[in-house]
Amino acid sequence: MKKNIYAFLFLILVISSCKLKEDTTGPDTDKPGAISTTIKVLTPNGNEVLSEGSSYQITWSGTGTSHVKIQYSVDNGTSWSLIVDSLKNTGVYSWFPIPNTISNQCRVQVTSVDGKSTDASDNVFSIIRNSNQSLKISSPKEKEEWEGGSAKQIKWFSSGIDSVKIEYTTNNGIRWNLVAVDKKNTGIYYWEPVPNTPSTLARVRIMDAKDGEPSSESELFNILPEPKIKVLAPNGGERIISNTSRKIEWISENIENVKLAYTTNNGFNWVVIKESVPSTGFYTWDPVPNANSQLCKIRVFDAKDGEPSDVSDSTFTITNQITQTLEVTSPNGNERWQAGTNQQITWRSSGIAKVKIDFTSNNGLTWNTIIDKLANTGAYEWNVPNSFSTQCLIRITDADDGDPVDQSNGLFRIVPKPELAVLSPNGGETWTAGKTDTIKWKSTGVENVTIEYTPNNGINWFTIIEKTPSSGSYVTSFSTAGTQFKIRITDKENGSPQDESDGTFTVTPEPKIVVLEPNGKEEWYSGSSNNIKWTSTNIENVKIEYTTNNGASWSVIISSTPSTGVYAWKNIPSNISSLQCRIRVSDAIDGIPSDVSDENFSILTYGVQLIKVTKPNGGESWVAGSTQVITWDAAGIQNVKIEYTLNNGIQWNVITNSTPSTGYFTWAQIPTTSSTNCKIRISDAADNSPSDESDQFFTIEPEPIIKVITPKGGEVWTSGTTQEIRWESQNVANVKIEYTTDAGANWNTIIGSTPSIGYFVWKSIPNINSLQCRIRISDAADGNPFAVSENNFQISNQVTQSIRVTSPNGGENWRERQSQAIKWDSQGITSVNIEFTTNNGNTWTSIVTNHLSSGSYQWQIPAGINSIQCKVRVSDAADNDPSDESNSSFSIQLTPEITKINFPTNGANIIAGEQINIQWVSKGIRKVRIRYNRNDLTQTADWFTLVDSVDNSGSFPTTFKHDPLATTYVVEISATDGSASLLSGSFKVLPPPSVTLIAPNGGEQWLVSKRDAAPTDLINYHPYEIKWKATNAEKVKIEWSTNGGGKWYTVPDAESTENDGSFIWAPGRIVKDFDTNGNPIVPDSSDNCLIRISSSGGASDMSNDVFSIHKSKKIRIKYPNSGEDFYPPEDLTNPKASKNWPMLIDWTSYAVTSVNIYYSLDNGVTWKALATNYQSTGAFAWDFVFGALAESRISTQGLIKIEDAALESPTLPPGKRIWDVNDVPFWLNIKKTSGKVIPLENQIKSSIKK
User: Fold this and answer.
1) Are 330 and 406 in the same domain?
2) Which CATH number covers residue 549?
3) pTM (whole model) above 0.70
4) 3-class DSSP state of 80
5) N or C: which end of the chain has fewer CB within 10 A?
């Protein structure tokens, strides 16, 4: 073995010592003598145990390749993750850190870079959890520059950690912001987008999400402003003559050089104008190419990597030809045209002889021709059809060749004839001023209404609300009283229809109470008497209460007293001593209205000192360094001491040792230490008693901070343009923004107060020219704190052309075949060209050329577009300069369409309560709404929502309830945004299945049939009928139990039997499986049997009580059975039942319907019948009377025999039937009586029961 190893090592040394001639093309294994590529993994090769976060030497042998790729797998080779993509073939690689993907199914794979040879570990090894926790950030690195809005990878090494929490700071740790929480510890996180908060003090912090330890912070790195480019000119609509010069203009941020290109086919192809020019904001394009196109655009992008970029918002024209124009002017969006009326369609055009007019009621999904060829007069009178819709557009095209074309900029509506009627108040009602009531009405075809009222029967009308949805109700109240009120409701949009109350209604005066005394600051004393005073309106009796805790609880002084305006409160309770007393006076009927003392007054006990802190008393937020007023209530105290705590009383700090107890104190300089556990304590300055402190914590907020971010200096802003001012702030609610043009000598207000959200859009920069401009931002409340731009920037009033795309500008979701408004801002531009791209600017397609730069163009999006990388570019039509494109991509998706509902189908029957899956086919829809309707599709009230919004998976599980009044149902599936909908066919919802077991239902006695007995064998074959009623079930399952339901067995042939209400079963006859003792495995004999019947719909029922199944019939005589002695009655004329007469024969039986009863007086030698076919009730009374004989014992060998009457066919002979005889003979005696023999018909029969 050693010899073989030495030989192998020697061979490796020989090979490695050989120097081959370098061949950059690599080895060719097809050539004779070529060196083949081989790879062999040496370690890890199976059974090794590696710890996460540690390092390990991967080794291999390899020939015929200069570089290798190394991967690892944690699922035994099902998938592979990259360790290193291209590594010099040295045979060894230090793997660090080992990932924290814990697994015992790991392998390493080494592959030659040409892919011709690969090898993996022969067996799996393990990566285990490292018991030592560690964490180290590897990216971002120190001073690394990350651009705002970009995507970056945060990386770290760790061990012993399952999940991490990631944060970042832009102020060196003063404040941390969350990036991700409870993120699985993969060692990498894709941070997208990096926040656009420029900073040189940025750090990333990562910690164990479980307990925060261990943690790691990155070194300081830079977040740069997000690079921006905005094409200004040409930006769409311009008309540029070939071979002239044209200025391309743009604005940019954080970009050194730009690349310029143009397209003449709306972005399908791009031609480079200049590979790289300094991003100064303009470039003279000379000459404009000799092209003839309306689909031209300019693209400006970062020369370094192509991002960011911008394209002309719209196409412009390079041409020397006269162009045709067409623009729809009415309807152009938001009109409400009533069906059946005549309306004017109008347009503007040039160079067009005849036009074609089309109409759509579904936002362009389908179009209907109004008129095919019409002389171009600019107007057409249209009789509006009865196509009620909110999705209407008009399209006008050149009738000759369909180009140009234009359509309504926005959707208009076709509505039915409106109706409106006031329901309440409609005359005779009585409302109360100050109390709310509901105005009610009904309407059709009215979207919004104006509601008015008159207090003088129509002489004057006053508006309650100018515009509110016509929902049928509106809650309001009146402040004045009167008897001549009416309500009038009008269609807001059209002024008609209109309706008012049929008659007048009354508004009674508003009840009112005002407490006059005590109303604050009074000092009353317990035990004394004082007058409570108030004024009232429209109040008969009042209830008077008092509080001693500022309203936390109230005590009744008197429940009802006439509202005379004064009440003598005698003997104020002696147990009251409080500074927080108030009086409440309210209507004694319902407590409304009411009034309370405006401020607290005192009820004191003579000689008692009191003090109460009232502000701050909990919940206040005071800013560090600000001035605040401390207030309190006190009695019997001349001077107070005031202290504060920042730590809930652990330590108190003196504000003032003594100040007059005036009830307020100005705290001039709140400490700069912020805390949420602050309180104030006030005490008697003489002896610190009494004292009181804030009831709850108040907060001292950190000092406010403001920092100007943009403009920071060096920028050039053009007069009349719009620019964004940016800043950072802390603890500042609103800011004031100013600018200076003389380095701060004078300041001009841009806005006096605006929310401190970090940015403000400065529109229409003033017409000035200065190099000494700065921005100052200050707290709008008091001017402090404030911040100023670090350096001067420039405002220039030189006339420049500019274009800025405003919509779509990134993130929008548009649809194919829809009409959308492309919008832009422009300056110095007459006409624009508009283009779009579906591949993020690789190619551009013209939308319109030489379009008037009105700021808006209604784009009919072509069919079939489905992309998330769409942009729009608008450029100056004259020379493509300036131009601008969408800042970010937006999406154009397929038009939402629901093509088919697979279930429920037309005519389907659905069982109520049974889950079904509604199934459909659709496209271009993310979420759907599903609802159903019963009977009448025209009634909105009949629609019931199953789910308001759910992912469009094509299937939705649900159940339906049965409505006995509904004949049919339909389901509607619609996109949640209303873009598409479809109705199913009509189906029925049947009542839920029900099962009622009729027999056996308890107490029955059944017999087991003999195995394999034929149905004709009535002796051994015992069939029984199981009966039930079941609804809405085609099949039922029948089961039986022998232990009261503890275990169930399926009745043979009844796993799924027809629901016909009857099933014949002979229990036990087919039991064929027996244990080793010969007993049937399924029990066939029990007194605890039950039958259960169930349907597939979940309905079931079982026997109400147990019944019996046994192998054979049984009869057992219980009495007489012990040698009893029987005597007849003494008086036959008046027989009286006694203990031994009549003879009460008692027996038990099983599966015996009727019996024959016999007696014998000679021990069974002869038998005489007592009863035949007698119902086997278990009791029979024998009144044995044999006549007037001398007293004697007639027999000592009496027997009773009870025999199955055996009514089956064929019947059994008596000797073959089931029977029983008493075990011990009885004695029968005859006594002499004085009467006659009692006739048989008068003898006592079976009236005496067991």
Assistant:
1) yes
2) 2.60.40
3) no
4) coil
5) N
